[in-house]
Every structure is written in C-alpha cells, then in structure tokens.
Fold each of these.
Amino acid sequence: MVMVINLDQQLVKQIEEICAARGVRLTPQRKRVFELICASLKASSAYELLEQLKATEPQAKPPTVYRALDFLLEQGFIHRVESTNSFIQCCSCNAHKHYSHLLICDKCSNVIELQDDSLVALLADNAEKHGFNITNHVIESHGVCQSCTSEITK
C-alpha cells in the first residue's frame, strides 16, 4: 500500500524558481517525477515511478525516468536511498547543502529524513583524526517506525 500525501504546490513552485535561477530546464517529465516522489511517504523505485508516470504518459520508458531522477539528484531536490535503490524528496529542496540521515521503516517502507549537524561534525572529526577526507555521506538506519511499532503492540 502506498501512502499518499497532499502535494505542496508551493514546493513545486519553489523548485521551478530554483531551476529558472540556475538556468536549467524543469521539463514536464522531470516535474511530474518530482511530484510523484513527493506524493509518497515511502521511497519510490525508478520502476514504481515509471508505472505511475505511465498513467499520464503511456509512452514513458525507463530512460525518461532515469534522466529525470539524475536531474533531480543533481539539483539536490531528491535523495537516493542507497540500501533500497529508491528515491525520496529532500526536506529542504537544496535550500542549503547538507548531509541527511535517513530512518527507513522495514515494515511500511516510510522514510524520514533527518539533518543532524552534530552527527556530521562527529563523523568529520573522527575522519580527520585518521587523516581521511570525507566527500560523501550515506547514513541510513533501518528499523520499525512509531506507527508500525504501535500496530505491533495493539
């Protein structure tokens, strides 16, 4: 079951403005893939997105979705959930560069994005002690969310 949330049109307007300011094109397909990602609390795979996209664009093919995902990742509008090869909306839509910590529910697949500067600082400090320069963080924690935990205890 896919949990659908109301799409914030202000968010779509924000990424349209960011794209215009950067001089990059937010094509209708890119915009639609972003909207599909935002419409779900769970992370979406490329093929799930393709199936949803085909509802409005029957001719859509995998490269259409992959190109849109590449663009959205490059612009910082979405995050890749590495462990499940899926995608979620960035909670700040690249308002500022940040590293995220993703909490992934193994029961319902919902994903919560956290931004914890103290965690990132601790990781950077530990890396520095070993003479290591971090270029990317992938911090994902799997478990059971509060909703699923309360369902188990009922």
Note: The beta strands are 78-81, 86-89, 101-105, 111-114, 139-143.
Amino acid sequence: MSTRRIESDIHGYQAAAALSVPLQQVLVDLIELGLQGKQAHWNVVGTNFRDLHLQLDEVVDFAREAGDTIAERMRALDAVPDGRSDTVVATTTLPEFPAYERSSAEVVDLITARIYATVGTLRGVHDAVDEQDPTTADILHQLIDGLEKLAWLIKSENRKV
C-alpha cells in the first residue's frame, strides 16, 4: 500500500479571517510604531540626546522588520496585508504622537508607552492566532520579547532609584 499523495490533494494553509484580522491589527500598529519612533527621533532634544536618538532608530528598525515579517507571514498564508497610510491612520490602536520638539525625558515616556501599546496588541491577539496557527503565534512571541526588551532599555533612562 502506497503512502504517496497526489498533487491535487496537496494544499497550502490559508488564513481564515480569525487569523488575518488580528495579524492586520498587529501590522498597522507596528507600522505606526515605526513612524512614531522616527517622529520622536527627529524631534528629541535634551539630556542624553545622542543615546536616545540612536535607541529610537533601533525601535524604528525593529518595528519595520517586524512589520515586514508579519506582512510576509500573512502573504505566506494567502492573506492580504494592508499597510497603506490611510489604513494605518484609520485602524491603529496607538495613541497619537505629539508634534514639535520634545524633551528626552518626555520622549522616553512617550515611546515606551507606544511600545507597550504595541505589545498589548500582540498579547491581545495571541490566543486567537495560536488557536488558528501555532507557527504564527511563535512569531508573535519573538516580537513580544524583542519589544519588551526595547521598552526596558529605553524606560530605564528615566528610572530613579
């Protein structure tokens, strides 16, 4: 008895709405985090400017790479990511970033809050994603770990003991 399958019986995994909708939310929040990180990077002033300026680039790089990972995972599952600016503005859960120059201490608090908001999105969709696709949930775990580390490194700038 042969165990070989025939081509017509082989299909890739396709994301159901229960998977593509939460991944889309993760995507737009990561895109927004990258944009807000760059806004902060350009307009931070004050004590430890250079160090924070460079740390903000790390946040931006992480958010961009993570967003690309999520979008490509969506495509691998035959879902269609939407990273258009109108979509990001209309659907992000991150608070709006204030305009103009901001002190380094204020930027630390602002960007840390946005990182944790993004982590909140990841944690909030995790169980629904894990139910549909544990492989994708593993990606979310890695992103949570990376973002929480970035938040810790940045928020420590303002910590007093």
Note: The two ends are 71 Å apart (CA to CA).
Amino acid sequence: MCSPQESGMTALSARMLTRSRSLRPGARPRGCGEEPAPLRRGEAAAEARKSHSPVKRARKAQRLHVSYEGSDSEKGEGAEPLKVPVWEPQDWQQQLVNIRAMRNKKDAPVDHLGVEHCYDSSAPPKVRRYQVLLSLMLSSQTKDQVTAGAMQRLRARGLTVDSILQTDDATLGKLIYPVGFWRIKVKYIKQTSAILQQRYGGDIPASVAELVALPGVGPKMAHLAMAVAWGSVSGIAVDTHVHRIANRLRWTKKATKSPEETRVALEEWLPRELWHEINGLLVGFGQQTCLPVRPRCQACLNQALCPAAQGL
C-alpha cells in the first residue's frame, strides 16, 4: 500500500505522464493508485467479459455452441435434404414379380410382331428410324398381327420417305389395309413424310416434343420411337393395355380416364429404371391374361393381390 508521500509523488508523476502521453500516444504509464486511461470500445468489451464468472461464461458458451451446430447441420451444404414420402401402390413389387413370371416365355404377339420387329435391320439408320415411326403410326387401334402384315407389304416396295411420297393415296391405302382408320392414316403418313423430308432430311426428330407435333403421332408413339429408334428412355409408353392394367391393379393414386393421364400418374412413382420394360411387359400380359373382356383371373398369379379380381 502506498504512503501519503508516495501517493502525492505518484499523482504528480501521473499528471506528468498524462501530459507526456498526449504528446506520445503510444506511451502507457503505470503506477500505484493511478487512474486508468479510458478504454477504447473493443477493449471495454473485452474487459467487461473478463469481469464475468468463468463458470457461467463456459456454460453459456457451451449452450450457444450446441445450438449453433444444430442449426448449421440443418442448413449446411453437407446436410441431406428432407425426403418427402412418395405414394406408391400396395403390393406393386410382388405384382410386378408375378407378371414377369407369367411373361417369361415371351410368346405374346407383341414379343415377335411388335415395333422392334417391323423394321428392316439391314437398312441405313435413317431409314430404320423412319420405318419404326411408320409402324407405330399404323399400330394405333390395330392388332400387332395386322400392323406387321402392312409393314411387310410396304417394305416389299422399298419403304423410305421418298418411296412413300411417290406412292399415290389409293395404292398406299391398299398396302396398309386393314389397319384401323386406314384412310386417315394414309393422310397422316403422307403429311408426316413430307415434313420429315423438308425439315429433317428424311430422318425423324430426336425429341418427344417434335415427334408429337407430327400429324398422327401421339405420346405413346413418341416415347416408343425414342426408345426403339434413338435408344433413349424419355417416358413410359402407355397404350390401352397398360392403361387398363394399371387401373385394375390400382397402380394409379386415383382412377385415370386416358392413357396419357395414366402415363403421368405412373411416372410419379414408378422407378425410372423400369420405364423401358413396363410397356412390353404389360402389353403382352394384357394380350394373354388380363384381357379387356373376361380376363383370365383364375390363371393369374396376382388374383389374390389384384383389387379388380375381387369383384370379378
């Protein structure tokens, strides 16, 4: 503790040092009983923090640390996004396994007369793609056997864009008869062939949007053309068979009224790796077992799993 004399001397020294500090900002005088110089804002905050209890400060820091890490894990870049549950039909995986088992022989009409078997495999790629599209246009509302017969007659005359455009309507009609709606299909085939020659150099478009813009080409044909002609899976090809079976098995969240509505509903939940398989699988199943009228439920492995079978 300082004596009164020492305190006086210290005060005098402090005044002298204070005057000296005003001339030399870097100087920091120290002495017993000296009044400290005002702290800057950052220094004041640091001194204030030092005055708190170390125990309380540690607890508070720990709580803040845990809270901060929790919010960071939710919003950080490495965090996994929240997964929204996707609707899927009950027992669909077992139903699919059963359908594959019933289709393992691959002996339905679609298996040897479908679009994959109607084009000339020895023709140039551009011609093959054109023949794929033409067979799809003929197949609408037509059995595979009839479509295959029409394609054989057309190929016998050399089936190319140029040969079709050089064929008069009456002759073309005789060649494709008796496909469904053959008269209107003659018109569509001629119009589409002219567009392909003018805009695509005799080839077919490589996108669904351009394909469905062609006269007489619908979504099912476009997706199948992308798969068969271009080797690209763009969506599920849904025809009347797929539409009917999907509704019977309740593979749609609610009943659908058209093949295109069914396609949208199926693509919402069916894994993409199954999209290419589902058309041929269900078409053949519909041709042999799940018939439009009087389905053969007694011979179906899905009889106990099919909602529609319970009411038949």
Note: The chain has 15 helices and no strands.
Amino acid sequence: MAEIDLSPAQDKGVLKEIIKEGVGDETPTTGCKVKVHYIGTLLDGTKFDSSRDKDKPFKFNLGTGNVIKAWDIGVASMKKGEIAILTCAPEYAYGKNGSPPLIPSDATLKFEVELLDWSGEDLSPNKDKSIERFQIIVGESYANPEDGSIVKIHLVGKYNGEVFEDRDVEFTLGEGEIVGVVDGVEIALQRFLKGEKSRLFIKSKYAFKSQGKPEYNIPPNADIEYEVKLQDFEKETSVWSMKPAEKIEQAKMQKEKGTKYLKSDRINVAIKVYQKVSKYLNEGSDFTDDLKKERDSLLVAAHLNLALCYLKTNENILAKQECDQVLELDPKNEKALFRRGQAHLGLASPELAINDFQEVLKLQPNNTAASNQVLICNSFIKKQLTKEKKLYANMFDKFAQEDKQKEEQKLKEQPDVMRGTLGEWGQEERPGGRDATAFEKENPNILMLNANGSGEFKNM
C-alpha cells in the first residue's frame, strides 16, 4: 500500500506503509499499554535492534513520551494485528544526537512494527485493571480536578451493550454517591483534563458492587462501561492561600455537610467530608486565641464523628485512632473514651475496653451506657477465660494421650525375652560347642547355663 503521512504538520516526518491489514476498527489511545514486535533498520538496511531476535515483545505506554515521537504517532494509527513500516525522520526519532554507537546523528530510521495487542490505561488505585481508560478526545489543559472540585460531566452508562443512563450531572468530587455517580468514575475523573472524553471499563467493586442496581437491571457484582466527558470543573481554593478565619469557615461547612450525610446514613460520603475538616485545620500555628479554641473544638467534633462512622462500618482500628486524636486535645472527653472502648470491644480486647468505660464512669458516675458496657466487658472476659480453660484442658488431654501413645510404642519396640530366638542357642553358640542338655531343650530361653552343662546357674 502507498505510504501515508501521519505527522501532525504533514511534513513527512512519520510515513506509514501497511504491510498487513489489522482487524476491527479500534486503535489504541493515549495511555494504553501496547504490545508490539519490531525490527529497526537504517536506510541502508543495517539492522540496529529487533524484538523478534530477542523473542520478546516490547510493551510501552502510548502517548506518554516513553518512546520516540514517531512511535507514539504511528502505533496510535494501527489496528490489532496490523504490520506496518514506519519511516521516521530524525526530528521524530533520535535527532542530531542519534543513539551511539548504533544510530548516527540525524538518521532517518525504518521500523517494521506489528501491533499485537493493547489494554486500557490502568487508573485503579491498586493497579489491578479494575478501572481502565480509553481516550476518545484528549483534554485541552494541563490541570486535573481533585477531591473537592466542582465538576460538570456528561456520562453514558452501559451494561452488556445496553445504555442504562445518559445524563449531565454537576457535583463535588468525592461526593458523587449523592448523585448516583459510581466510585470508578470519581477516581478516573481525577486524571481527566478539561474537555476530555473517554471510555471507562469499571469492575464491580468500583461500580454497583454486590448490591447491583435493580432499577437499571444491573445484577450484583456486574462490570460496567461508562463514556464520560469532563465539560468543566472548578477547583477548591487552596488551603495555603486562606486566612485563619477562612479556614475556620470552610471547616465549619464541611462539618455541617458531613453531619447531614451521617444522619442520612451516607456513611462513606460523611467520612470523606469529615476528613476535610482536618485538611483545613491541621496547621495550627496560625490559629491564636479564640480562633485556636474554635479550631480545637471543630477538630474534636470531626474526629468524634469520624470515630462514630468507623464504628458503623466496623473499622475499629480507624475508630480507635480517631478517638486517640480527640484525647490528645481533650484527655477527659467522655465520648472519645466511650467510643474507644467500643472500638476495643470490636477488636476483642475487653481488658482495654473496660478501662475506657471505667474512666467514663469516673467522669460521669451515672452514665448508664458505660455501666452496661462494663457488664458486657466482664461477661466477655469470663467467656474468654472459660474458652481458654477448655482449650488448655483439651491441649493437656491431647499431650497426655500423645505421651501415652509414645510410651506404648516404645514398649512395643523393646524385645520380648520370652519369645523368639533370644537365648535359643545353636550348637556353635554353646560354650565348647556342646550339644544341648535335656534341661536346655526343655528351657530354651534360659541363657546363663555354665560352660560344662552341669545345670548350675552362673552369677545368680
């Protein structure tokens, strides 16, 4: 086939000649991990590199500057299975510097490239391909929205090829659950640029999870697809640029919003919002006098409410940590002591829990809830002791049985002097090689007969 000029400036910097057509209509997009085989030669045919000679395909992230410009441009135009010759001008390859000793300065290069396969850009937090992005339209700026940004998006959701939602939505990033935006879309948006449009393949754990979405006919544990366009976004004001009073106001707003979500049982969103309170108030050096008191009061309230959220989600270690932070600010805070006691109970540590509940009772002797928790702790401890006693008794019984079996085995392994050949001497084994006496024949297991066979016992 005829060569095609792929260079953006149409300056013949990247020419492609297709040797073998690929399949389908799709081509890889920026960020995709592509897998290729290649053979690189100079214009005179000198080969300088080959993945085929190494018998190992080459993988790289497309469009991210991992390879020469000609490859980012050329491979992005290829279909799966396609083989093409890319002719790359120096400014799209190694330029004036070359790549000594194999590639000289200002060298035009030829690459035979076969596109074997590709996968989407992995945006998942654990890099397990649970959120994959395939860009359709590249964004136009260099800034990304972040947690707390107000985003305007258009999204189209699909399951098994069927559209289940198609809408515009505006929300605060991190609070998408409130408007029905799944976690996978929120996570991906933090890597979007303004104007970007991408396809997202999202595994169930970042979609509708084990609950599914019955109103959309989406079953539990279903993987879904979204086409998302980031129309616009507005970032939060940077904390470092705020005055202390502004930080206090922002923290108040987040605390009130978190409480609203907590009361409506939106626990996961409440956690995200309460965490922002600390973001505004963590740097305490510029808070003085009344502002410092207000700051400490807001931090105490946020940590207490976070502890409550974590108790509700059974994340007891995190709940305990939040209570610890409260007690650093207010060592006699009854709620912090009580909730830390609950966290200790959740972690099966009743001895630690009872100490916290007893501290509450020292501060509030008539606290019925704490008194009841002390009873629960004592019952828990009693059950643990009974269980341990039974466990140890069973262990000792087991050890005793094992010792008995070992002793019986040792006895079995000892020779039986009343049976077998022990003491049944042959002719050559008797003193003097004599024949057995009548007594020895009648008593073959008697060993200590004297040498002359007189029938007298020796050394008895």
Note: The first strand starts at residue 4 and ends at 5.
